[in-house]
Amino acid sequence: MPKPTLSTTVAATVEAKVDVRLKATTKAMIKARCEEYASLATEVKSRTARQERIRKEVKELFAADGQLDALQAGTDIDGFRVKEIGGSTTTFDFNELMRVLDLMPSDLLAFQIKKPKKAHVKISAPGEQRDDG
Question: Mean pLDDT over all residues of the chain?
Answer without folding.
Answer: 85
